[in-house]
Amino acid sequence: MAAKAVQAEPTAPQLAFFNQLSALCGQSFIGKVVEDNQPSPAFSGEMLMHVRDCSASEIQIPFVVGENRSRTWIISKTADGLRLKHQHKHQDGTDDVSTLYGGDTVSEGSAQHQSFPADAYSKDLFLRTSMPQSTGNTWHLYLYPQDRFSYRLSREGREFRVDFDLTKPVATPAAAWGAEKNSI
């Protein structure tokens, strides 16, 4: 059996995805749940994404639901592709026990779509916090720059997707809770 080739940097499709997302930096967009087979009150109310902080290696996107500003998606370049982490903060800016879960790309994806299966840290966190069903999570990001950004969670028995309308930027929301501490 041949050894898997080691990827030295993100692939062209991964870089294209990252760069297209980075081009939205500073803008905010309204979203709506378009698929949710297990509705939760945690995802009711107005939804906004704010492509807030962008560097050559990391993009931070607070995901605001109603008055809840606890969530930030962090997309970063790695030596092997892209990484998605979910940062969760309390209103006082301290970390939630369930923070920095996510995963790394395992395929090159495309300029419009990247998938992030749960990594070992996340699986361990989910087991420690009594959420074993989440060990099979895969998060998907879709980006159609002239139209829509989608965040999707899938696992056996669970489908959740929020679409954001990129054709109508909106006013920037208040910063995410603990924004000054949001670097990983």
UniProtKB/TrEMBL annotation:
Name of the featured protein: Secreted protein
Superkingdom of origin organism: Bacteria
Region (Disordered): 87-115
